[in-house]
Structure formats: structure tokens, C-alpha cells
Amino acid sequence: MLRASAKYADVIYNTDLDIINGIDVLLSYAGKLYAINLFTETENAQIGRTKKQFRHTPFDNIVYIELPVSFKGSKACGNFYLYSEREMEVLNKKLN
Prior knowledge:
Blueprint: E1 10-12, H1 15-21, E2 25-29, E3 32-40, H2 43-52, E4 62-69, E5 75-77, E6 80-82, H3 85-95
Parallel strand pairs: 3-4
Antiparallel strand pairs: 1-2, 2-3, 5-6
């Protein structure tokens, strides 16, 4: 969805960025770089996010944004819950 949107100049995901740097998605918007951290909005995921915060050294030139997905009201695909327009709207508000 992020790549399909003409709003963002660059949208990058790769396993090295995720595993080594702890950044799920990196995007460029309005001349700035943003690291989008994706996770489910559950108590266990919040505990995991807190632990992960200290595993990686943050970059000074990147703004970090937490973007959880809530099971309630999310689009389901089998056992998976998907990010959708609702989360895109939340992200847009956080960026502006």
C-alpha cells in the first residue's frame, strides 16, 4: 500500500534493515526519513516492542513512528490481520 501510494518518494523494506536495524519499513516523505515500526496492538506485542527498543542504535537522521495494527476492526485474511486504509490514515496523521 505504501509503495502504491504516490505520496511517498521511497518505500524500502528488506530483511537486513528489519533484522539488523530494527526498521520494518523506511520511507521518505517531505524531505525526511521515517522508520515505521509495525506490530500488533496487544499486551505481548507492547512488551516485545519495549524490549526491541534497546536492541538497536537509532539513527539521528530518521524519525521513528510506531504503527500498531488492532485486531478489532482490522481486515482479516485467514489467521492474519492486515494493515489497511485505516492504518494508512493514522500514518498520514502522524507524518503531518
